[in-house]
Amino acid sequence: MALSRADTSTLGRWWWSVDRWTLAALLTLVFFGYVMVLAAAPAVAERIGASSRNMFFVRQVVYLAGASAVMAGISLLSPKGVKRLALLGFAGALLLTMATLVIGAEVKGARRWLNLPMLGSLQPSEFLKPCFAVVAAWLIAEAKTAGRRGWVAWAIVLGLYGLVALVLQRQPDIGMLLVVTTVFFTQVFVAGINLAIVAALGGLGVSGLVGAYFVFHHVQRRVDQFLFGEGGANYQVDVALEAFGAGGMMGVGPGEGRMKNVLPDAHADFVFAVVGEEFGLLICLFILGLFTFVVVRGLMRLLAETDLYVILAAAGLLTQFGLQAFINMASSLHLIPTKGMTLPFVSYGGSSVIAIALGMGFLLALTRRRMNRGEEGAAQGGYR
């Protein structure tokens, strides 16, 4: 049943105020998530000796359905509601991320996961990303509008960033730390901070990356593999590039790909290579276009926004979304060193899919058209 503009119900107000184009693009990515896990996951399940070839697919159906519900539900919130939920989410995610250092499951020398009864494995740092972006935006906006007392908000947000950085470094999860840092620096820049301070922060970030190369063996190994490709160390990337080459322009057809049978993490970190082989260059460009559309459209929606908190929060969430997609696709194409980061909504994953849905729900809520007197007055007038 069609909803008219005169519909003053919660659903009616939501439908005529939410960015339906962005919502459609995100749901299209969710659809590709279903298609790609159906194409890639059975081969992976069979290779690792899982109890069922459809194990990953069944799980992903549940994850993506839950993610869609989370995204839609959170998009109903007001900016103030987004802030409150982000504060609660940040506190909970930070405590759970700190808990991984003590009771987390160790995988390849890193402690990033918690094994929870009934819920299985959980990576709480995934939820830190969107929640911290919103919390940081709120504190930076407060600092900019508080006059001389703004230093208190600056001290708090810098302290929280330092705490998050310390916890992620201790796991260690340098890739996650890079994303959080990039988002935070982007928000500081958009807030109009003195360029000298921004440059100093940028220099500090570059120094941190250089330091990570010399301090963390796994970071040094991945960079060296990318630059020098020592002794077949780029096996996953080589197979991924072979998959892209086999797919050509139109692909070999759904389910007909062969590289997923030998490509580790074909359903997760390297799902883009499976897309390339089975669906070809045109669909790869279409998926790239969807990510670009979401980011550009979101930024365009902010041009008419006057609330600094909304601008900073949405800019941070869009930066995070676009950066994560870029890292995944660029890793598969051997444009940057490999990093275990999922392709939003397309890769298999529980924590990552729900966390991305949380962030995009925040974005849809923040970019809804609102009346100057607030959403409560929507029944008496139009939307801004």
UniProtKB/TrEMBL annotation:
UniProt catalytic activity: [GlcNAc-(1->4)-Mur2Ac(oyl-L-Ala-gamma-D-Glu-L-Lys-D-Ala-D-Ala)](n)-di-trans,octa-cis-undecaprenyl diphosphate + beta-D-GlcNAc-(1->4)-Mur2Ac(oyl-L-Ala-gamma-D-Glu-L-Lys-D-Ala-D-Ala)-di-trans,octa-cis-undecaprenyl diphosphate = [GlcNAc-(1->4)-Mur2Ac(oyl-L-Ala-gamma-D-Glu-L-Lys-D-Ala-D-Ala)](n+1)-di-trans,octa-cis-undecaprenyl diphosphate + di-trans,octa-cis-undecaprenyl diphosphate + H(+)
Provenance organism: Muricoccus roseus
Record flagged with keyword Hydrolase: no
Molecular-function annotations in GO: lipid-linked peptidoglycan transporter activity; peptidoglycan glycosyltransferase activity
Protein name: Probable peptidoglycan glycosyltransferase FtsW
Source domain of life: Bacteria
Presence of the UniProt keyword Glycosyltransferase in the record: yes
GO BP term, pick one: cell division
Transmembrane segments: 21-45, 57-78, 85-107, 127-143, 150-168, 174-190, 197-216, 279-296, 308-327, 347-366
